[in-house]
Amino acid sequence: TLHIYNATAPQIAIDGPAGTYRDLSFKTANSLRWLIRTSGLAESGSNAGSNFEIWNRDDAGSAISSPAFMIQRSSGNVGIGTTGPLSKLNVVDSGTGAWPTLGSATGSSFLLGGSTNLWGMFAGINDGTGGGWIQVMRKDSATAYNLALQPVGGNVGIGTTAPLSMLSVGASSQFQVNSTGDITTSSTGELTIGGTGNSSIAG
């Protein structure tokens, strides 16, 4: 047991030159399990280098990932599965991403789980196509749930940053669905249905 007391600002300092690892390790029977460290990247200016890292180790004490979690000192960006996070939170799945399978968490990189973690909102990236997906479902049975967008107000835009109706599609909201379910258009007032087959509108 290590007990440190200071009435004003107690601290533990692990000091060392820039460009070197400064480690705090947790072991089982002298075999590494977790490693908290600053990275060995040199401090080259503009607050670069000496990033914060957490490494997980296998039963033999070898690194499982490199690292499991890190914080970039210069930007404060958090990386999970990456040492070069491009945003405030950047998650990189080392496995091969795929489209979801109902009743399975396989292929997902993100889960916002319910109270028992048996269901929730899963999300992932398909590495083969570059497409992304969101699916609300159970992971222990083939049960899907509804996904609500803007359930208490606001518009949804596809291909636009300024949706004019409850659902707006196109850079200028060329196709719109309003709050009463009416389909409208932006400026011409025309609704065009194209294709080689038969088309009909019933009202």
Layout of SSEs?
Layout: E1 22-28, E2 31-38, E3 52-56, E4 69-71, E5 78-80, E6 89-91, E7 110-113, E8 119-125, E9 132-138, E10 156-158, E11 167-169, E12 175-177, E13 183-185
Parallel strand pairs: 5-6, 10-11
Antiparallel strand pairs: 1-2, 2-3, 3-4, 4-5, 7-8, 8-9, 11-12, 12-13
Describe it for me?
The protein is mainly β. Helices cover 0% and strands 29% of the residues. It has no helices and 13 strands. The protein has strands at 22-28, 31-38, 52-56, 69-71, 78-80, 89-91, 110-113, 119-125, 132-138, 156-158, 167-169, 175-177, 183-185. The strands form 3 sheets. A 6-stranded mixed beta sheet has the order 1-2-3-4-5-6, with no helix packed on it. Strand 12 and strand 13 form a beta hairpin. It is elongated, with a radius of gyration of 25 Å. The mean pLDDT is 88.
Properties at a glance:
single chain, 203 residues, four-stranded mixed sheet, 13 strands, 0% helix, elongated
Strand tally is 13
Binned strand content: 25-35%
Helix count equals 0
First-last Cα distance: 78 Å
Largest sheet: 6 strands, mixed
Strands side by side in the biggest sheet: 1-2-3-4-5-6
In the predicted model, the low-confidence regions spanning at least 5 consecutive residues are none
Shape: elongated
Q: Write down the Rg.
A: 25 Å
Structural class: mainly beta
Give a quick precis of the structure:
The chain is 0% helix and 29% strand. The chain has no helices and 13 strands. The protein starts with 21 loop residues before the first strand and ends in an 18-residue tail after the last strand.
